[in-house]
Amino acid sequence: MATSRPTPILAQPSSYHPPPPPSRPTISYGSRDRLSPSLPDEESSPMGTVGFELTVFGLDHQNPDSARDHLVRVLNDLRNRHSFPPVNVRRGDATSSLDYAFISLSSSVPGPRPDLLEDLRLLLNTLPDLRATWRLCNGPDRTRRLFFAFPTDNEAQSMLNPLREWLRARHISIMAEWTTHPLSTSQTRISFDLFNGDDVDRILREPPFIRGRTLRPGRPRFVVPLYGGEVAISGIAGLGNVESSLNSHLRQRYGHDVIVGSRVELEDDVYCAVLKDWSSTQAFLHDNQNGLPADWFLYGVSVGKPTLLFSFNTQGAPPNPISRPMSLSASESVIQPQLDYFRSEFGHFTSTLNTMFDRISQAEQRLEQNNQSLLGMMSAQYLLGDYRMNLLLLTNEHDRLNIQCDRYHDQLATNPDLPTHQRLQSALENLDNRRSVVAAEIEQARREIQAIRLSLATHDHLALPTSPSSAISPHSVSPPVAPSSSTPLLHSTRARSPSPDDLAESRAMPKPRLQSVLCPIRVSNMLLTI
Predict the structure, then answer these.
(1) H helices of 415-486, where?
(2) Which of 34, 64, 372, 448 has the highest Cβ tally under 10 A?
């Protein structure tokens, strides 16, 4: 009896003294200068350190604990060969079997140290089949997620199984799935996390076509962090070269060396930057918690508030809300209920339409099944007629052979000539052989007729025998030339003739008849009878 593998225990160093921060963060941000970080002032830190975690992909996923246990074994093996700080390992989800787990520094390590986690990330990326990145957001990872939005819960539930079957038919493995109701919309979303990121791009290129319509998938908005403590400002799309302007303002206020690197993501809508240390990051976020200074932009331009990229992703990477005149609020308050009403009515209409499509599809399937059954029964009736005709011909031939054998026996009894006796005896042997063959064919034809009758009695999934290759004509076997009536008679054993019941059944010669079959098909409220 197989035993489950015990949960491994993460090995921690007995004592650990973290090295001083490196001269510059080991991240790639184009050709921008790397500036040395300084030690954070931990006692005066006004905010928590969220997002200083790694996500390690490519782990075992037999059960919700498999990925965590696998990563613990990997870290224990690395600790025998490398030195790194004490860490904590957490599973990706308590109920889903995911292929990734999270790593964070132990609370015994003072201060947020993204440089230590970055070194561990690079070390893990040297291992085959594993991939380590900075954690994207709170909760499960979203980098391999896509979703389908529906106006109502009922429609979403009705499309869940068809979507699963569509993915399964294309050999796309589902890691986890959720049904959610985003606060920003009145829709219901079915989200799938896939094992292979290439499958996400494949589905976006070739979306599923189910129940007569194309289901357009969506992807969550996110920006993958390049370093712990990266900051983000959204809503800069269409504002020109905002990156350069923001970099200039940050250097003027927080020092010329404050920016390690910056970038613009999500179709030039989000500005991301890594600052030189956690103190500078905290100061920037604290000073601008109500928004960037108005004198940084032209009058009327509004962008999002600065935040950590990790928190920005957790919120779904929302775009910057567009400022509107106050006079529009009253009209919007009147129009919005009407839009909600029309959305609800359209949802009910779509649900009813899908229900009708389901009924029509079921009716078509029943009609196809009944048509197949009807065709099978028609084929069986015609086949039954062929076998009955074949049985009649075989019975007639058997009777003719019996009559001819009787005549030869009479000639043998009246003709004493020895050569004639020999010819008659040879002819009788041929007739007996042929009569045995015909008798066997008669029994086979009866069995086939009985099988067809049984199939007609239970006409579901008809398993019909093959049609007889050809009917045996009464002249298919040429009888030997009858000798003269003076041939002497020799005693011979007479073969058994068919029973009177067999002859009566064969001479009745029933004609083939096509039985009528009623096939009731219900399409919505109409009853069709075939």
Answers:
(1) 418-457
(2) 448
Unique residue bearing structure tokens 């086949």: 383
Neighbour-count burial for 385-394, b at 16+ CB within 10 Å, e otherwise: bbbbbbbbbb
For strands 209-210 and 174-180, give the pairing: unpaired
Tokens of 229: 């403590």
pTM assigned to the model: 0.57
Strand arrangement of the beta sheet that strand 145-150 belongs to:
145-150, 188-194, 174-180
Which residues are registered as beta bridge partners of 194?
Answer: 174
User: Are 249 and 325 contacting, i.e. CB atoms less than 8 angstroms apart?
Assistant: no
Buried b (16+ CB within 10 A) or exposed e, 500-526: eebeebbeeeeeeeeeeeeeebeeeee
- Cα–Cα distance for residue pair 83/73, rounded to 1 Å: 15
Q: By C-alpha distance, which of 104, 102, 183, 188 is closest to 147?
A: 188
pLDDT in tens, 388-412: 898 899 899 889 989 988 888 888 8
How far apart are the C-alpha atoms of 513 and 296, rounded to whole Å?
94
Cβ-based neighbours of 509, under 8 Å, separated by 6 or more: 388, 389, 392
pLDDT digits (tens, 9 = 90+) for 442-475: 999 888 888 888 877 775 544 444 555 444 444 4
Terminal CA-to-CA distance of the chain, rounded, Å? 59
C-alpha to C-alpha distance for 444 and 436, rounded to whole angstroms: 12
Contacts of residue 175, Cβ cutoff 8 Å, sequence gap at least 6: 61, 96, 97, 98, 99, 144, 193, 194, 195
